[in-house]
Amino acid sequence: MSLPIAMGWRHLLFANWPVEPEIVAARLPDDLEVETYDGRAWLSVVPYLNVDVRPRGVPAAAGVDLPELNLRTYVSRDGEPGVYFFSLDAEGMLGVLGARLFHRLPYYYADVEISGTERGIAFASERRHPGAAPAEFVGTYAPVGDAFKPEPGSLAAFLTEHYRYYTTARDGTLRYADIDHEPWTLRAATAEIERNTLFEANGFDAPAGTPVCYYSRGVDIASSRNRRWE
C-alpha cells in the first residue's frame, strides 16, 4: 500500500557536481537512462526541512516537521524524466520506517539538525540506521543575489524542475510517483561544506571541485501514490 502525501519543502540547498555519465549509469537500475546536461551527468546533495508532512486530505496542522537530506541524480524512463534517489536521510525513526514501507524509498534514520545562524542555514546529519553504511553531512549555506525562475533549458531548470521520482523497491522492481508543485523560485547560493560522505556511502568517489549551488525558500508539494512501473 502507498499513500499520497502532502508537505512543504523549506530552506533547500541544491549542491550539484558534474559526473561522467557512465559512472552514474553503473549505479542505476537497467530500466533507467541517465539524463545529461552538456554531456555531463549530475549528482546533487539536497538538505532541507520538511514541514506539515501528512497524508493528502489531512489538515496541515496535523502534519509533522522533520529535516531531511538526499543524494540524487537525473534520469528518464521511456522519455519520462525524473529524479532518482540513491539515499534519503531523515530525523525520526517512525517517519523513516513509514517512508520505507509506504513509499519504497531508500530512507535511513539519522540525527539531523537544521538551524538559522548569522552565516546562513546550518545543517548537520549523521546516519544512525542499523546496518547501513555510515554517512555524514555538515555545512552552512546562504542565498546570494536576486531571486529568479529557472529558464527552460537552463542548467538551473535541469537540476531543479522535475515532477517525478523513481526508486527501486527491495524486490528490484522500478517504482515511481508524480509530484505537483509550483515552479521553483531560486537564488544562487554559497555553501561551506565541512563534511560530506554521502557519495562514498552510495558507491561513488568523493566529489571534486566546487559545486554549483542554488537556494530556495521552498514550495508546497503533493505527491501521488508510489506505483510500480508496468
Description:
The chain is mainly beta. It has a single domain, classed as Beta Barrel (Acetoacetate decarboxylase-like), CATH 2.40.400.10. 11% of the residues lie in helices and 55% in strands. The protein has helices at residues 21-25, 93-103, 155-160, 198-201, and strands at residues 5-19, 33-34, 41-55, 64-77, 80-90, 107-117, 120-127, 136-148, 164-168, 174-180, 186-196, 212-223, 227-228. Strands 1, 2, 3, 4, 5, 6, 7, 8, 9, 10, 11, 12 and 13 form a 13-stranded mixed β-sheet that branches. The mean pLDDT is 93. It comes from Natrinema pellirubrum (strain DSM 15624 / CIP 106293 / JCM 10476 / NCIMB 786 / 157). This is DUF2071 domain-containing protein. Pfam families: DUF2071.
Describe the protein's topology.
Layout: E1 5-19, H1 21-25, E2 33-34, E3 41-55, E4 64-77, E5 80-90, H2 93-103, E6 107-117, E7 120-127, E8 136-148, H3 155-160, E9 164-168, E10 174-180, E11 186-196, H4 198-201, E12 212-223, E13 227-228
Task: Describe the structure concisely.
With 230 residues, the protein is mainly beta. It holds the Pfam family DUF2071.
CATH architecture type: Beta Barrel
Strand content: over 45%
* Shape descriptor: globular
Kindly provide the radius of gyration, computed on alpha-carbon positions and rounded to a whole number of angstroms.
16 Å
Could you name the CATH topology? Acetoacetate decarboxylase-like
Give the end-to-end Cα distance, rounded to a whole number of Å.
16 Å
Total domain count? 1
CATH superfamily: Acetoacetate decarboxylase-like
Report the average pLDDT across residues: 93
CATH class: Mainly Beta
Low-confidence stretches: none
